[in-house]
């Protein structure tokens, strides 16, 4: 008799779970997202630059809406104005006359929907990648391929680095940040490990010079990304504010960052 009652209870529970649960997610007005990464790769003129503007979207939306129709310009400390023109209705604004100068201050000005946004940053230099070492017995399994991209830190100054490793395997690049607090003036390296790499694969390694403020900004973002499980019912990461502000309506602050970096790039073929 107990067995029959138990089976009936299980059946009732299964059928009762078929009800659709509608989750009432809070909706807020979309915020402007600023992706203004001005990168100057060593050995190039650095004249072609772009700024990408988009809007935040509800959690379950699959598309990110572009912020179209904005006015975008970057002004140097010598009052040189660089106008960025939108490429169609994409939210991508381009300029091909930019002249980067290391240690010079630049200001980003954006006008979008009658509100003005502003950000300031100094163009950061970077140490060149000197060599890449490969280890074929890395990781916990002893079968991962590990790459170390070495660079020589400049002595007697605070330096911060942002490494990006791109290959055909992961959908998202491997990102990491470094400071010279404990190895000032010494040789250091950016680290990358991937179990699915094989001989002949190409890995693009980029080392960006960054400011201390951007280092702290990325530290929080990377930590949130590693700690978050990504589920919609879990506690969501806190909003991380960048270095851009809304001067017209401060409460409607933007997301994203205005960064200017010299870049050392190496294209490495896995041995």
TrEMBL record:
InterPro entries: DUF4249. It comes from the Bacteria. Pfam families: DUF4249. This is DUF4249 domain-containing protein. It comes from Gelidibacter salicanalis.
